[in-house]
């Protein structure tokens, strides 16, 4: 729930906050009141009640930061602070963020708006904010030591510039960046066009979220900030499936999804059941001559992509990163492969002594969605979520686009599972299966592209699992 009083409740709290920020009471009273949010739910769009009108976005498992108008300037207040983020039901992480959450709230403005952002530092070290993709005065760019001094703990700095071009942007620190971004300090920024734009279509529903990743040991709560590649939690807005909300749309809605990547690798984001156009990047709207229909968009580190599509197919459509490891939760990189070995009885006994012991199932990892496997406190199973037809063997960067004919305009509530028309669900074939027809041809081994340099004296087939040396340092 949004709370305007959580940090600054009444005159006494204003005095305390003024002392903490080492500024005068008069100056503190002039600040916009910081608005806080701790619930992980997707909040309704924030319709503008001042300034130029626009169609607001919906931040997946997030919210939009309110503002105040002050002599024609839109004023916002961001508070950098430690936060607790529920990444999935039963699993909370100790992160850093803004205004009670990680990522911080989305900032929405209109092209041509003069914007003033007050940033209060409640961390234990210097910080700053870089306004990723914005055209602005060099001294407002937010790189500590290069464009400005770092914001000391307890201090409030002011950024002020004109939002010069419409598009999809983000904000994040450029101060102790490895730590602060690994801890979750980031947020979305949307600049809406001030008038009808030839390259920006009007849409019925406009969603946004950031891609982020963490390395949190099972049973722990704080990310390991030194990790470079082997992350075990791949998330959208610091949420993992099944904690990521669905994207609910009405049949035949024109839908826009804006995605920004602040992880350490690229992500091929894939939508089922529809084709979309890349209509914008963090460089601005794309020329129509460059657009082509896609079902997967690869989003590199530091990039934004804006995808538009017509929701003309009813159903519950998967929407996810197509890197298979990125649809898993709390994944260990040194888990031995035991496919083909029945070890379930032994594994069950071991987990009674070592709760975080984990090994791949004899038939693959999908078994884990059905095993009653004890987990350490404060972690998430590798695959979770119960669909209408059973366990969903997914985790991480996975959600569902729910398209419904009877969804009302502006209604983002979950309509439940799709009711499939008769005869439109895959079913078991119960008839007799004919013997397979074998292709009758020469079955001798192919010659290869050239003779082998060395060949074993006889064919060898490995029958046992040999110890693995590991490759976690790659």
From TrEMBL:
Residue ranges, compositional bias (Basic residues): 465-474
Record flagged with keyword Methyltransferase = no
Q: What is this protein called?
A: Exported copper oxidase
Q: Which domain of life is it from?
A: Bacteria
Give the location in the cell: Periplasm
Any idea where the Plastocyanin-like domain is? 90-195, 221-336
Looking up PROSITE patterns in the UniProt record yields:
MULTICOPPER_OXIDASE2 (PS00080), TAT (PS51318)
Q: Which residues form the signal peptide?
A: 1-29
- Listed CDD domains: CuRO_1_2dMco_1 (cd13860), CuRO_D2_2dMcoN_like (cd04202)
**Region of interest (Disordered), ranges:** 441-474
Give a yes or no for keyword Signal in this entry. yes
What's a single GO MF annotation on this record?
copper ion binding
| Keywords from the UniProt entry | Copper, Metal-binding, Oxidoreductase, Signal
A single Gene Ontology CC annotation of this entry is: periplasmic space
Known InterPro entries for this protein?
Cu-oxidase-like_N (IPR011707), Cu-oxidase_C (IPR011706), Cu-oxidase_fam (IPR045087), Cu_oxidase_Cu_BS (IPR002355), Cupredoxin (IPR008972), TAT_signal (IPR006311)
């Amino acid at each position: 729930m949004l709370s305007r009083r959580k940090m600054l409740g009444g005159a006494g709290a204003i005095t305390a906050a003024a002392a903490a920020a080492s500024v005068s009471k008069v100056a503190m009273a002039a600040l916009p009141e910081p608005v806080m949010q701790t619930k992980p739910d997707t909040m309704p769009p924030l319709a503008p009640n001042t300034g130029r009108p626009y169609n607001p976005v919906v931040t997946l498992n997030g919210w939009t930061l309110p503002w105040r108008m002050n002599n024609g300037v839109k004023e916002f207040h961001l508070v950098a602070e430690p936060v607790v983020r529920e990444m999935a039901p039963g699993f909370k992480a100790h992160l850093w963020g803004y205004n009670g959450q990680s990522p911080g709230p989305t900032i929405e403005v209109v092209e041509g708006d003069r914007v003033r952002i007050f940033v209060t530092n409640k961390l234990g070290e210097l910080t700053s904010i870089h306004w990723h993709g914005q055209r602005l005065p060099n001294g407002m760019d937010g790189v500590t030591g290069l464009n400005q001094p770092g914001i000391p703990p307890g201090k409030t700095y002011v950024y002020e510039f004109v939002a010069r071009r419409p598009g999809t942007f983000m904000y994040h620190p450029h101060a102790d960046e490895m730590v602060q971004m690994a801890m979750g300090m980031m947020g979305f920024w949307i600049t809406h066009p001030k008038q009808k734009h030839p390259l920006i279509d009007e849409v019925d529903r406009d969603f946004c979220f950031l891609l982020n990743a963490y390395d949190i040991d099972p049973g722990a709560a704080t990310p390991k900030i030194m990790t470079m590649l082997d992350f075990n939690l791949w998330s959208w807005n610091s949420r993992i499936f099944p904690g990521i909300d669905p994207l609910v749309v009405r049949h035949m809605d024109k839908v826009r999804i804006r995605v920004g990547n602040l992880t350490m690798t690229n992500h091929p984001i894939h939508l089922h059941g529809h084709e979309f156009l890349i209509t914008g990047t963090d460089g601005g709207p794309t020329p129509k001559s460059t657009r082509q229909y896609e079902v997967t968009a690869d989003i590199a580190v530091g990039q934004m992509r804006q995808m538009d599509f017509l929701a003309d197919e009813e159903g519950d459509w998967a929407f996810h990163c197509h890197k298979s490891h990125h649809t898993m939760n709390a994944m260990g990189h040194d888990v031995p492969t035991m496919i083909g070995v029945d070890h379930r009885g032994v594994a069950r006994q071991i987990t009674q002594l070592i709760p975080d012991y984990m090994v791949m199932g004899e038939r693959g990892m999908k078994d884990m969605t059905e095993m009653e496997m004890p987990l350490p406190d404060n972690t998430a199973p590798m695959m979770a979520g119960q669909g209408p037809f059973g366990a969903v063997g997914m985790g991480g960067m996975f959600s569902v686009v729910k398209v419904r004919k009877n969804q009302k305009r502006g209604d983002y509530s979950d309509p439940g599972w799709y009711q499939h028309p008769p005869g439109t669900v895959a079913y078991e074939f119960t008839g007799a299966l004919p013997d397979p027809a074998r292709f009758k041809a020469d079955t001798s081994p192919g010659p290869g592209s050239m003779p082998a340099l060395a060949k074993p004296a006889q064919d060898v087939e490995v029958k046992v699992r040999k110890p693995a040396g590991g490759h976690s340092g790659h």
